[in-house]
Design a protein that fits this description.
The chain is α+β, with helices and mostly antiparallel strands. The protein is about 30% helix and about 35% strand.
Length: about 400
């Protein structure tokens, strides 16, 4: 091919490229000219729905206690292994007792001397009383001797107290379990110097029963209160009327035994605005351990013909909630809604939409009411929505 042929081919290629760009530009302008916003939407669900009040919580041992020694000294012996289950009164540690043994001997010697001084003073008083009766000494001398006896009696009482204190200190060189329970594994080793009242030797706690502790906000508390009134539970004194509580562990396993709410804080926390509540569970096999996270569930209630909307479809502004739906003209329409409980990925809607509405679940960014829409209908499975609770348990503490 000659030079002129190559030039002709280059011209044809350039024209082809320009043509494709022009047509591509026309196509883009045509799409932009439609003014339709692409969104994904789905029909509102309406069905009987099981509603459970559920809150993240943490398991706490009952009567968790840090064990400290009452006397100071080096730890000479340890009578357990970390994690052991012990009974109340079982010896745990022996602290070096030599100085306390010496203190007992010294206190006893001081007591013996004080008792001897008292006997001498009493003998002198007996003699002085005989002499006074014979007018051989003055009344003042007799009075002074009586006071001397009283002083020696007080000294004896003081030395007896010192002996008791020294013996108690000696007895306290053996550290005993204050209660039955399981010991922690962060115990101190033999040879550690323990300072009375400050050195934590080991901690102990009872595992059966065990608490599930969780917090609710003020709004949630009022909802629970309203539900209690609705169920006729408010003011009941019989424990049988308190709703059963269940826990789901972090692996999704539901603990088979039910518990009861036994304690609630007297006020809302100033910082978090939440109320702390405790539910008590039987734990006969020690399967539940303090520190575990769990989801606490109670008030299992069936709501008939509940209207359900995906949580991600709900937008909130100030104290109002609204959703965008697809109207009969294919445009976006904002509707205010009154929300109820959360159920899995959904809200129960008490007022504002019906099962005939189609809600927008994707493409909501900067979308306003009255926009023409390019709607793609999706299902709950497409979007990963579910009526089941998430198994993830988040620590809110």
């Amino acid at each position: 091919m000659g030079l002129s042929g190559k030039k002709a081919g280059a011209v044809i290629g350039a024209l082809a490229l320009m043509t494709s760009i022009i047509f591509a530009g026309c196509g883009g302008d045509e799409q932009a000219a439609t003014g339709k916003t692409p969104v994904k939407a789905m029909k509102v669900l309406q069905q009987d729905t099981n509603v459970t009040y559920s809150y993240p919580g943490q398991l706490k041992g009952t009567d968790d206690v840090e064990i400290h020694s009452r006397v100071s000294g080096s730890i000479m012996e340890k009578y357990f292994k970390g994690g052991d289950t012990v009974r109340a009164g079982q010896p745990l540690y022996r602290i070096d007792s030599r100085q306390y043994e010496s203190a007992v001997i010294e206190a006893q010697a001081n007591l013996h001397k004080a008792e001897s001084d008292l006997r001498t003073a009493q003998d002198d008083l007996y003699r002085d009383e005989m002499l006074f009766s014979e007018k051989a000494i003055s009344e003042q001398e007799l009075f002074n001797q009586r006071e001397n006896v009283k002083a020696n009696m007080a000294t004896v009482d003081s030395e007896r107290a010192a002996v008791r204190k020294a013996q108690e200190n000696l007895d306290d060189t053996i550290v005993y379990a204050p209660m039955s329970g399981r010991l922690s594994v962060d115990d101190v080793a033999v040879g550690t110097y323990a300072t009375a009242g400050s050195t934590k030797l080991v901690s102990i706690g009872s595992l059966d029963p065990i608490y599930a502790q969780f917090s609710v906000s003020e709004t949630e508390y009022l909802n629970i209160l309203a539900k209690a009134v609705e169920e006729g539970l408010l003011g009941k004194e019989d424990d049988g009327d308190i709703p059963d509580v269940k826990i789901v562990l972090s692996n999704g396993y539901e603990y088979p035994m039910v518990g009861k709410i036994t304690a609630a804080d007297r006020s809302f926390n100033d910082n978090s605005g939440s109320l702390t509540i405790k539910a008590l569970f039987s734990n006969p096999y020690g399967a539940l351990l303090p520190g575990m996270f769990a989801r606490v569930k109670f008030f299992d209630v069936m709501v008939k013909d509940a209207v359900l909307v995906p949580q991600r479809a709900v937008q909130q502004l100030l104290e109002e909630s609204f959703v965008l739906v697809v109207d009969e003209n294919g445009k976006s329409l904002s509707k205010n809604v009154v929300l109820g409980e959360k159920v899995g990925s959904y809200y129960i809607v008490k007022k504002g939409i019906t099962k005939d509405d189609t809600v927008i679940v994707d493409g909501l960014t900067n979308l306003q009411s009255g926009k023409e829409l390019d709607v793609t209908m999706v299902t709950a499975d497409d979007m990963g929505f579910s009526l089941k609770e998430a198994s993830d348990i988040v620590n809110k503490s």
